[in-house]
């Protein structure tokens, strides 16, 4: 507070006290010398400086926060890459002299996606060359990952029975492969990036095998082979083509194990498939 403000308040109080108590002004003959409150000014100034510091960042503080933000973004990016590593636009270059064994060796060395980190064995495929039918599933499961062979678990046993019902066998006239050659953790669906990273291997196998027909088991393989997103229920029971090769879609054996009501429509699909195959073989 300023000195003159203090003096004014003092005079007002002095006159009021004299009036109410019946004193004369002479009682307050002594004069009071007031000074400005420098300490309060300092406190105000200090508070003002603190307020400015809280609202206005110094260049050093601003730069430090920007660096922290960049570090956080970098850490988040690394975390995302560890979870799902987007594969490069890489494809397997094959020629007319490429063999299935060479493709399998290439698959064994493959590190295009994160599935390579968790696999025990790659599962290139198995069967005969120049088969009547190429069967395509989605990816290896637990048993397949342990043995390095496709469809050898419970779903594989059922698949062999389904194929045998229409005169097909992996040892005589079929080849069995998957969209991805490594097991996805916990048997989850393979991510699109993982399918893209692996698909050129399957393309090379198809180029060598030249099957008369293709049978896709389940949604993952059918959508990838047909390059579309559609429920399995809308795709089954009809024929498509992949590079001029007749292709049919039906339920995955795992789905039949979970829901026996799907076995009847799956059997209808297999009968249609068999009739088409017989027609092709007679030409």
Overall description:
The structure is a single chain. This protein has a 6-stranded mixed beta sheet, with helices on both faces. The protein has 12 helices and 6 strands. By secondary structure, the chain is α/β, with parallel strands linked by helices. The model is unreliable at 39-44, 55-62 and 75-90 (pLDDT under 50).
Number of helices: 12
Class based on secondary structure composition and strand pairing: alpha/beta
Largest sheet: 6 strands, mixed
Assembly state (oligomeric): single chain
Shape: elongated
What fraction of the residues are assigned to beta strands by DSSP? 5-15%
Major beta sheet, strand line-up: 1-3-2-4-6-5
Q: How far apart lie the N and C ends? A: 111 Å
What's the β-strand tally?
6
Cα-based radius of gyration, to the nearest Å: 40 Å
Low-confidence blocks of residues: 39-44, 55-62, 75-90
Q: Mean pLDDT across all residues, rounded?
A: 82
Task: Give the helices and strands as they follow along the chain.
Answer: HHHHHEEHHEHEHHEEHH
Question: Helical proportion?
Answer: 40-55%
Secondary structure layout:
Blueprint: H1 3-21, H2 38-55, H3 59-83, H4 100-108, H5 115-118, E1 126-127, E2 133-137, H6 142-147, H7 154-164, E3 174-178, H8 192-209, E4 213-217, H9 219-226, H10 232-235, E5 239-242, E6 245-250, H11 253-258, H12 263-282
Parallel strand pairs: 2-3, 2-4, 4-6
Antiparallel strand pairs: 1-3, 5-6
């Amino acid at each position: 507070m300023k000195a003159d403000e203090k003096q004014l308040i003092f005079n007002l109080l002095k006159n009021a006290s004299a009036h109410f108590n019946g004193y004369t002004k002479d009682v307050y003959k002594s004069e009071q010398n007031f000074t400005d409150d420098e300490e309060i000014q300092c406190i105000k100034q200090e508070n003002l400086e603190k307020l400015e510091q809280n609202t206005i960042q110094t260049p050093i503080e601003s730069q430090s926060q920007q660096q922290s933000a960049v570090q956080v973004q970098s850490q988040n990016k690394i975390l995302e890459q560890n979870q799902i590593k987007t594969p490069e636009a890489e494809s397997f270059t094959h020629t007319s002299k490429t063999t299935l064994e060479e493709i399998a060796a290439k698959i064994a060395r493959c590190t295009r996606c994160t599935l390579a980190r968790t696999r025990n064995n790659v599962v290139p495929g198995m069967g005969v060359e120049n088969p009547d039918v190429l069967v395509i599933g989605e990816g290896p499961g637990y048993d397949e990952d342990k043995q390095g062979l496709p469809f050898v678990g419970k779903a594989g046993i059922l698949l062999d029975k389904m194929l045998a019902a229409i005169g097909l066998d992996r040892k005589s006239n079929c080849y069995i492969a998957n969209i991805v050659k490594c097991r996805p953790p916990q048997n989850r669906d393979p991510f699109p990036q993982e399918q893209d990273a692996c698909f050129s291997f399957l393309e090379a196998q198809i180029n060598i095998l030249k099957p008369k027909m293709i049978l896709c088991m389940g949604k993952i393989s059918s959508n990838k082979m047909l390059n579309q997103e559609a429920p399995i229920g809308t795709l089954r029971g009809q024929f498509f083509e992949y590079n001029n090769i007749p292709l049919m879609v039906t339920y995955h054996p795992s789905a039949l194990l979970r829901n026996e009501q799907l076995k009847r429509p799956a059997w209808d699909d297999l009968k249609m498939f068999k009739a088409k195959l017989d027609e092709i073989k007679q030409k």
